[in-house]
Each structure stands twice: as C-alpha cells, then as structure tokens.
C-alpha cells in the first residue's frame, strides 16, 4: 500500500515536473530581416522585453538580408523551421496558394481592425483572410539635403518629379555635388519599389482591369523614361544601378547626394552624427507627384508577421506577434519604423523629435500604391527587374524593354 | 568452388558500401530524373506532380535566358579554369626552386584556399566598390583610369570581375597539386637533357609537363566540375545582375526550384547542367588517355 502510494506519487511527480518543464521550455524560432526598418538591436531589445514578460517562452531571433527572406520562408516549410516569420506585402497571394501561413482571421478582433491603418492591413490580407499582423508600415520618402538646396537657391523641396529633376540639374550645374540623385536601382526588388513610386505618381498601372500587364504604356512607360532620363542627364549617380537601400543611405549620409529615395528608417539614421556626416541637414517629404495627376506618391512597402502553418507553437507565436505589434511596443521603438496604429500618429511621444518624418508619413501612408497581387509575383518581378536594368544600362529603350517584359509576364499568366 | 566462395564473400563485404552509394547518390539521382518529368512544386509536391514527359526540358532549352546562362557558365568555366591552370603551374614552378623565403611563400599559398567562398566574395565586392574600392584607388593613382568606375554594375565587365575573384581563390589548389607532382620528377632527367643541349623551354615541354600531366588533369577535371556549377560567389557578388549578365545555369536552377518553387522544371535544368559537365569530363578523359598512349 505504502509502496503503491510512493509509486503513485512518483508518477504524478514526474508528470508534474515534465508538465512544468514543457511550459518552461517552449522555444520559438523567429525570422527577421537585417535591412531597413527596425534595426537588429531594436528587434533583440523588443524580444528581451517579451521574454521578461513571458517567462516560459524563449525566442531564437534570426536575421537575414531581405533578398534571402522569401526563399528562407519557403524552404523552411518542409523542415518545420520557424514559428514566426517576417514577410513582405507582395507574398501573401503566393503563400496563401500553397498554404504556407496560418490563417489568423479569427484571432483579430473588430477593435484591432479599426485601430490599425488601412494600408497596413493590405500587407497581411489576401482574398478576405488575414495571414498575420502588419508590423512595419513603411514607404519610400524623398530625402533632401537642406544645405545643398539652400546653396542652390531653393527654399522648398520639390513637389513634382519634373521639379526634382530641375532642382537636381541646378545643383549639379552649380558644382555643389557631382550626382545630386541617388537611388536603389540594382537588379532587385528595391528597384521595383522606386519604379512603382514614380509609376503611381504618373498615373500608371501594373495590370489593367483584365489583369493583363499595362505598365508598358502611359504612366508606367513615362516612369521608366524619367528614370533613364535622369541617368542620361548626369543628375543620377550612375552607380545607383548597383545600389541597394544601405548603399543609398551611405552615399546620402556622406554628403555625396542632394536627394535620395529611401525607406523611412533613413530619417533618424541620416540625422544621427554617429552615422552621418550630414546630420542636422536632412529633410524628409513625401515622394513627389505629377502636375495634374497626383500630389504625392508612395509604394506600399509594409511588412507583416505571420505564423508558418507547420509551426507547433502557434499559441506562443501569436503571443509574441501580438507583443511585437502592440501599440505600446511600436510607440517605444518608433525611430526607425513608424507604428501601424492610427492613434500613434497623434501620440506626442512618437512625434517628438521627428515631426517632419511623422508629417511626411501621414501623407505618404495614405497614398501607398500596391505592387500587383499575383501568385507568380516573384517571377514577374524578376522579369521586370531585368527590363529596368536593360533600359537603365542602355542596352534597350524603355519602350522596348517594357514591351518585352509585358509580353513575357502575359505568357506566364 | 573456392573461387565461387571468394566471389560471394567479396560481394558480401561490398554490400554495405553499395547500399550506401545507392542510398546517398543513386536514390536522389533517380528521384531528380523522376521530378524532371513532372510539374512538381516545392511546396506540396504530392499534390502537384503531374507527369509531363520531356516538356520541362523543351521549355528549358527553348528559353533564350537559359541558353544565355549556359553561355555565361561556359565562359566562366573556360576562362577561370584556364587562368587557374596557367597561373597555378607557373607559381608551382617558382615555388619548386630553392630560394630564401620559399617556405613562407608556400604557406601563404594556402591562405586563399582556406577562405570561405562567401568571405572571398564579400572581400572582392569591397575591392571593386565603385565609391571607395581599392581597385579604383589603385588604378586612378597609377594614372590608368581617369575616374572611379563601377566594375560589378557594368554588364561588360561584371562577369570578368567575378572570374578574377574566383581565380584568386582557386589557383592555389592547382598550384599545390602541380607542386606536389613536380617533386616527383627525377632531377637526373633535367641533367641529361641539359647535356643533350635542351633549353629551358624544351625541358618544360618535354620533361616537366608530361611528368605532371596526370595529377594536373585531376586538378583540371575537379576545377571544371566546380566552375560549371558555380553559384555561391555569384549569389554574393552580383546576384546575377547587372541585367542578368552574370546569371549562370546554377543560378537558374536555384531560381526555378527555390524562388519560383518549380522543382520539376528546376530538376530538368540541373540535369542539363550535369549532362554538359559529363560531356566535358568525358572529352578530358579521352584527351588524357590519348596523351598517355602517345
């Protein structure tokens, strides 16, 4: 009898211990990117706060370059690798088709739906379902060097793309800087983001009403002609054709450019004396518009956090996502990436010290143009990237390059 | 009877090895061939692997981009392996001489080899940087170049620049093998040849080269296979740009299978690459054997 009890106790004890151990040893694997938006330090600090508030959950943070993010998410699917992944606004169509991400529509209440920016929701929504929470609400802004503009006799930054080219020309002619404009036009998604911004300003469309490529005419063609024109006029740094976002930041921050198109994260970094030689002289405005068509332009460059459908720790993963995307955490880390919450944009703590950034964002985030929603986006984008490069390197005219890309994409569909 | 028993024992002893070889290379190869004739997708392959016969191969070979990539790869392989062999043999000849500091130089030869390819690629990216790269600084200061230029951003130079980075890293392998082979050449052969009045050039072509040809051809075959499947150095240095001028066939295999998730068509791309390098190696073997007979 006694022995039986002891045994019973032992068995219960083991269960209790293993139960506790189970609760204490959930380790989430989370995948982020190291390029624009939140810095690695920010992500690690947020995660440390989360772990402190949730003692049973441990988180492994992994950061990869943006260019590796998509393939990592896809490949990890067969290995059951991650519990939380950061993903780009252009992927949900494909991910939904292959059932890569958990549908979390039921986990998001009406109140949250109302409180978050509309543009941010498009990041995680596809076909009426939600595949995660938006986390980074971001777009491309026009950065300018106030000193250089003043030297060239301009009091205000440009409001149209024509004006931008004219100011750049004047700055070059006065010998203030060799190449006033710098962009991220390497053969990558970054170039598509710049192109989309200008395309939307000039009233272009990626796809027509029937879903057929339409970027090879109207605003789409004018946008590429504009880009190539600035190279021909010598006002765009020719190395832009091999630059990504961080190269743009480096060139602009070292005072080698008067204007740059880049994500919001550059504002506080370019104004930080430890990171920049032009700190204190950096202005930010929404990307320009086009006379008679648009006041300002922007591309939807938001990103969201989702749970891979094969994760075995979905509850804990959702807890982590809710923490990272919460208004409180986002307001605290609002220097490199602005919050997804509407209320944050009137929160004095968020605005303080970065009024121009928040003001520009208010305009830009409301006019964000989407890149096309299609399951084969990755491939279509690669085709278009090559077309942009061919035109910018002069191996093809903008019209020919875009016509060919449109034909290839139409055949693909 | 005894010989029969010996054969059985031999096969029994070989069985574990055969099973292992079939497991690690036979099965994947057959599976790849199977995939190459299906429309399998990377995710949920079971749902999508419809049988398509040779459609994937037809599509691959009729794609102008893929044919372009075959040309880039061939160019990369021929130029880089050629340069590696020439430089490697010359360095080996130098290091085979007796001089002060030879041991140090021999040790330094290993350094590029010891570097991971990704690190090597990042390093050369910095050297080629259009704004602050060492190559631009060197050429401008020597007066060979008027202004800094973009090496990896220009389709005319990008692939050659990647080749230089690859040659720098890989010529030591050839040099090392050639150096080892050189040490087996009997010295009296040279003495006899000198007595017969053979010059330096003649001695190299008639004694040295034939003597190291065997090991050298092993290096040649190894390097050609490696060069033909080049991926990592390109992925890091240019990601196939500018304007796809550095996209090699392996890059296409990666893109098809992992970025576009078409495992079936990716497998057909990969098998075409294997076929091309198999042909190359077969012709090497033929040439070497003919050389040996003559």
UniProtKB/TrEMBL annotation, chain A:
InterPro entries: Bact_solute-bd_prot1, SBP. Keywords: Signal, Transport. Belongs to the bacterial solute-binding protein 1 family. Pfam families: SBP_bac_1. GO terms for cellular component: periplasmic space. Transmembrane segments: none annotated. The keyword Transport applies. This is ABC transporter substrate-binding protein. Residues 1-23 form the signal peptide. It is found in: Periplasm.
TrEMBL record, chain B:
The chain crosses the membrane at residues 12-30, 75-95, 107-127, 163-184, 204-222, 266-288. Pfam families: BPD_transp_1. The keyword Membrane applies. InterPro entries: MetI-like, MetI-like_sf. Keywords: Cell membrane, Membrane, Transmembrane, Transmembrane helix, Transport. It comes from the Bacteria. It is found in: Cell membrane. CDD domains: TM_PBP2. Residues 70-286 form the ABC transmembrane type-1 domain. This is ABC transporter permease. It is a multi-pass membrane protein. One of its GO terms (biological process) is transmembrane transport. GO terms for cellular component: plasma membrane. Its main location: membrane. Belongs to the binding-protein-dependent transport system permease family.
């Amino acid at each position: 009898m006694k022995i039986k009890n002891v045994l019973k106790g032992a068995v219960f004890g083991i269960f209790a211990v293993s139960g506790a151990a189970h609760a204490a040893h959930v380790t989430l694997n989370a995948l982020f990117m190291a390029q624009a938006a939140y810095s690695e330090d920010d992500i690690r600090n947020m995660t440390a706060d989360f772990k402190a508030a949730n003692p049973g959950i441990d988180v492994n943070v992994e950061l990869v370059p943006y260019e590796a993010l998509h393939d990592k998410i896809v490949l990890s699917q067969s290995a059951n690798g991650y519990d939380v992944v950061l993903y780009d606004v252009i992927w949900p169509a494909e991910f939904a088709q292959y059932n890569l991400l958990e549908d979390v529509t039921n986990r998001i209440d009406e109140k949250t739906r109302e409180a978050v920016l509309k543009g941010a929701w498009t990041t995680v929504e596809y076909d009426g379902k939600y595949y995660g929470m938006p986390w980074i609400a971001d777009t491309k802004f026009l950065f300018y060097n106030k000193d250089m503009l003043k030297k060239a006799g301009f009091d205000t930054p440009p409001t149209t793309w024509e004006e931008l080219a004219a100011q750049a020309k004047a700055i070059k002619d006065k010998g203030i800087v060799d190449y006033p404009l710098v962009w991220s036009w390497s053969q990558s998604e970054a170039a598509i983001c710049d192109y989309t911004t200008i395309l939307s300003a000039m009233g272009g469309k990626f796809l027509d009403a029937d879903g057929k490529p339409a970027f090879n005419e109207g605003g789409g063609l004018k946008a590429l002609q504009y880009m190539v024109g600035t190279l021909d006029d010598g006002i765009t740094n020719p190395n832009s054709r091999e630059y990504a976002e961080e190269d743009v930041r480096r060139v602009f921050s070292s005072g080698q450019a008067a204007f740059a198109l880049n994500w919001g994260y550059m504002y506080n970094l370019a104004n930080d004396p430890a990171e920049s030689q032009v700190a204190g002289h950096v202005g930010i405005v929404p990307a320009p518009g086009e006379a008679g068509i648009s006041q300002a332009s922007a591309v939807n460059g938001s990103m969201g956090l989702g749970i891979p459908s094969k994760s075995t720790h979905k509850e804990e993963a959702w807890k982590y996502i809710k923490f990272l995307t919460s208004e409180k955490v986002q307001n605290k880390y609002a220097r490199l990436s602005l919050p997804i919450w509407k209320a944050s944009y009137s929160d004095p703590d968020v605005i303080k010290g970065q009024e121009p950034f928040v003001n520009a964002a208010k305009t830009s985030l409301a006019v964000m143009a989407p890149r096309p929603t299609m399951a084969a986006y990755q491939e279509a984008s690669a085709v278009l990237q090559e077309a942009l490069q061919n035109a910018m390197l002069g191996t093809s005219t903008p019209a020919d390059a875009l016509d060919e890309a449109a034909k290839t994409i139409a055949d693909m569909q | 009877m005894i010989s029969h028993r010996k054969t059985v024992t031999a096969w029994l002893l070989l069985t574990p090895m055969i099973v292992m070889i079939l497991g690690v290379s036979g099965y994947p190869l057959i599976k790849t061939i199977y995939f190459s004739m299906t429309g399998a997708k990377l995710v949920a392959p079971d749902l999508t692997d419809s049988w398509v016969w040779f459609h994937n191969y037809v599509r691959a070979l009729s794609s102008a981009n893929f044919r372009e990539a075959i040309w880039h790869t061939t160019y990369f392989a021929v130029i880089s392996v050629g340069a590696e062999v020439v430089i490697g043999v010359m360095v080996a000849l130098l290091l085979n001489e007796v001089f002060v500091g030879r041991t140090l130089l021999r040790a330094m030869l290993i350094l590029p080899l010891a570097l991971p390819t990704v690190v090597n690629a990042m390093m050369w990216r910095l050297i080629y940087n259009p704004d602050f790269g060492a190559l631009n600084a060197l050429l401008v200061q020597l007066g060979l170049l008027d202004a800094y230029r973009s090496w990896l951003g220009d389709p005319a130079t990008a692939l050659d620049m990647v080749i230089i980075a690859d040659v720098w890293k890989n010529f030591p392998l050839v040099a090392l093998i050639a150096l080892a082979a050189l040490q087996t050449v009997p010295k009296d052969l040279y003495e006899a040849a000198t007595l017969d009045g053979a010059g330096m050039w003649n001695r190299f072509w008639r004694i040295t080269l034939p003597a190291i040809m065997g090991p050298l051809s092993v290096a040649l075959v190894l390097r050609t296979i490696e060069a033909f499947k080049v991926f990592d150095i390109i992925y890091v240095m240019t990601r196939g740009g500018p304007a796809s001028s550095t996209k090699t066939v392996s890059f296409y295999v990666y893109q098809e299978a992992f970025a576009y998730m078409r495992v079936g068509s990716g497998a057909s791309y990969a098998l075409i690459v294997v076929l091309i390098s198999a042909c190359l190696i077969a012709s090497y073997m033929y040439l070497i054997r003919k050389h040996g007979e003559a």
